[in-house]
Design a protein that fits this description.
Layout: E1 9-13, E2 25-29, E3 32-36, E4 49-53, E5 58-61, E6 73-77, E7 80-84, E8 97-101, E9 106-110, E10 121-125, E11 128-132, E12 145-149, E13 154-158, E14 169-173, E15 176-180, E16 183-184, E17 187-188, E18 192-196, E19 201-205, E20 212-213, E21 216-219, E22 223-231, E23 240-249, E24 254-255, E25 272-276, E26 279-283, E27 296-300, E28 305-309, E29 320-324, E30 327-331, E31 342-347
Antiparallel strand pairs: 1-31, 2-3, 3-4, 4-5, 6-7, 7-8, 8-9, 10-11, 11-12, 12-13, 14-15, 15-18, 16-17, 18-19, 20-22, 21-22, 22-23, 23-24, 25-26, 26-27, 27-28, 29-30, 30-31
């Protein structure tokens, strides 16, 4: 597949959210885009649930979640959406699990997680949901790996992840779940560990070379990218925004030697990152300037360099994002306050 020119990308402003928010979770089900929960302007978790129709460019309000929460983990299972954990209205982690039936338009309470957790990462394989890590009520990172059995409505405990953490990045490749980074309290985690769903065992891989908070991770066909963030290494008096890019070569099984030309053009943290049509895309976030970033750039795999894209119409950080129908949707986030902006990075029709 030919890598598209940066000139063919453009941003498309879409219908705004009914209410601005942050820490909402998007998920695709049946060709529709669902948005679950989030925090409002006062920082209060919400019970809002909406569905976006691409044909009408319209958000429709759905029955609210029984339990208001933000930062939930979400898994699409056919025509059902499983909503897991998150932060409740008392700013506390929750063990709550609820399921939304798309056809019936109804919520149903399901068996809870083994313990309360926010910052859980989920992966779906063969209609099985794998929930990794989380931060518990004691504010400590968890090593839990749990598998949800939808037929029996039970959570099964699997071998614990070697490095307890929350807010990890997880990617499914074949039968293996790759787990990158995350946090332990305020400290970023560099561990890279892989769970084999068939062998039911963990393998440790070489750690991410740099220790950075609020970085992003992306999987491409041949590589894993660890991008940007806030560097907190010893020797810096204050945390430092970086444009560092580190690449794990899947075939070689190791991190590539760092080249300066691999670095992003802008220093950024807390930004959107995704793989779209063979390119790694980054957009928005926080940088060295006092205002949030609107800039965007795309990595060209053959040229091994970053190229500038048109900036987002609405500069912001802490956005939710999803690749949906060959477009990168950037949803909500923080501008001057919680944003209601929804914008999609698109390719011009050939």
């Amino acid at each position: 597949m030919a890598v598209p020119s940066v000139k063919s990308f453009h941003w498309q402003p879409l219908a705004p959210l009914p209410i601005g928010r942050v820490y909402c979770t998007p998920v695709e089900s049946g060709g529709q885009l669902y948005l679950i929960g989030g925090c409002d302007e006062g920082g209060t978790p919400m019970s809002n649930c909406e569905v976006y129709s691409p044909q009408a460019n319209q958000w429709t309000t759905l029955p609210p979640m029984p339990t208001p929460r933000a930062g939930v983990a979400v898994a699409a299972l056919g025509k059902r959406i499983l909503v897991i954990g998150g932060m409740g209205i008392r700013q506390n982690p929750l063990s709550t699990v609820e399921m939304y039936n798309v056809e019936e338009g109804k919520w149903e309470k399901k068996n809870s997680l083994c313990e309360a957790a926010m910052g859980v990462s989920v992966t779906v394989k063969d209609c099985r949901v794998y929930a990794v890590g989380g931060m518990g009520s004691d504010m400590h990172p968890q090593a839990n790996l749990q598998q949800y059995d939808i037929m029996k409505d039970v959570w099964l405990s699997l071998p614990a992840i070697p490095t307890p953490r929350y807010a990890t990045s997880t990617f499914l490749r074949g039968s293996k779940i790759h787990v990158f980074g995350g946090r332990q309290a305020k400290n970023p985690v560099t561990a890279f560990e892989v769970y084999d769903t068939e062998a039911r065992s963990w393998t440790k891989f070489p750690s991410i070379p740099g220790r950075r908070a609020f970085s992003s991770h992306v999987m491409t066909e041949k590589s894993f990218f660890s991008l940007g963030g806030l560097q907190q290494a010893r020797g810096y008096k204050t945390p430092k925004f970086v444009k560092t890019v580190e690449v794990f070569d899947i075939e070689q099984g190791g991190w590539m030697k760092t080249e300066r030309r691999l670095n992003m053009r802008k220093r950024r943290a807390d930004f959107v990152a995704a793989c779209l049509r063979g390119r790694v895309i980054v957009a928005g976030g926080l940088g060295n300037q006092p205002a949030v970033l609107g800039s965007a750039e795309a990595f060209h795999p053959a040229k091994n360099r970053w190229e500038s894209l048109p900036p987002m119409p609405t500069a912001r950080c802490t956005c939710s994002s999803i690749v949906f129908q060959n477009r990168l949707f950037v949803i909500g986030g923080v501008s001057h306050g919680p944003s209601d902006a929804v914008e999609a990075l698109c390719l011009a029709d050939p």
